[in-house]
Automatic annotation (TrEMBL), chain B:
Organism: Rhabdobacter roseus
GO cellular component: membrane
Domain Histidine kinase, chain residue ranges per copy: 68-267
Region (Disordered), start-end ranges: 268-291
Protein name per the record: Signal transduction histidine kinase
Keywords: Kinase, Membrane, Transferase, Transmembrane, Transmembrane helix, Two-component regulatory system
Transmembrane parts of this sequence: 6-32
Keyword RNA-binding: no
GO molecular function list: phosphorelay sensor kinase activity; protein dimerization activity
Amino acid sequence: MIENYILFFQRSPLSSLSVFVTLIPLTILWLRKAYSNEAFRLLFVYLIVKLVIDLTMFHFASRSQNTILYYNLNIILRYLLLSGMLFYSFQSEIFKKPLMIVGGLFVFFSVWDILHVNPVLSDLHNHAMVLYANTLESVLMIFWILMYFYETVQSMRTANILTFPFFWICSGLLLYYSANVFVAPVMHYANKWEGRFELGFLYQVPDLFEIICMLFVSLGAWFFSLHEHGQY
Amino acid sequence: MVNTENIQWAIFIAMLAMLMMAVFVIAFVIYYQKKQLEQEKKLREIEKNYQRMLLETALDSEESERRRIAQDLHDDIGTMLSLTKLSLNQLSKIMNKEESRTEFTFNKVQSLVEETILHVRRITRDLVPTTLEQFGLAAAIEDFVRKLGENNTLSVQFHCQPDAIPRQSQKVELTLYRIMQELVNNAIKHSQGNEIEIELLADKDKIQLLVSDNGRGFDLRAVRESKRAGLGLRSIESRLSVVDGVMQYHTLSVPGCRAGIQVPIERNRGKKPEPLHPFRRERSRVQDFPS
């Protein structure tokens, strides 16, 4: 089994690295006891969920099994947890309410998208990636992050934004979703056993930016202790 | 059929554009926040300067008013009292002194007039400390202490090496003098002690004024929170803010309390301080007037 893992690691180093890089922010958040804050707690839960799903995918991928079901599930969980994190980070009710409503609608849409591209759910071997949910998630997250930046700058809640944890976390997410927003629509066609669309070097983009995003999140988590918990 | 490579490049370019936008947004947030903070800082600085200017104006007006009252007292009431005294002296020469009752009443009036003259002089001196302008802070405090020493129930001591205290601008000297007055008055009124010690020190950077008493002390926080009781403290702090000074209170040492004032020494004293003496200034004006 370990040989399979090593072989997969050698075959897809970037994808493998994106799995284990999650341990860095997770450890920092744990050491900083950041889970005492609601927003950071959701980020912490998201990182745990991400690590579990990624490890499961890593395990099955090393055995050349279809792992897209987990990826599709990850989209819903990722959006819910990260938008929940932003929900607690927003100060204004103007953003909180739409965020909640959009969250609910997104879950319905994603479930519909999964069922739409996979009429036979039990056929896990041919399970396909969602068509629109991934793109929609990117667009929505970019929008919320921009709104968060707007609110942060307007309210001047921090004296130095470079030591403000959520600035780094949101910057990482913004880069990740910006890179993903144009790649996501073709992922459905690229992740197929047969007749797949060749993405070439673009196939590595989500993994690469996932690593960058995790490093930014780690930086944000590192700055957590410098701020008072109640500030967010 | 569409070339896959072309689609790849199209996606790559779109992705690159999106990433550039994201990087631009992040950079803009950093820049804008920094700029906004700078503006906020500038605004706060302007507000602080404005408050300081208002305070300075208020204190200046207070001093001007004191000077005006002192001048009125000296020029009008003082002159009239002196004339009354002169008239009384002349009257004493022509008055029939054989009648003892008349003489008694006359002497009483004369002593009352003299006492009133002394009172007017004292009030005038208190309003405008002429010694301060002429001989500096140490001499003015010494003068103040000497007058307080006339009260037998209170022991006031002043320690200072007058040569070690450099002359400062009128604003600084007057501020320190008024604060000293306020602290001593507070000690007399509230401390219930019988010993007050004033110390005036200076090093190359600052002038230090220490006022301590052996009274019952006080709770600094309670006084600060009290609207009426904290008025004196706030007045001292306001005066100090105008000359960039700081104050420290040591109230926990039983008995009494110790107040320390620090004011930075002015390296380059600007213009010569405006004369405080209301009378001399008035005379010089009259002299300057073309005949």
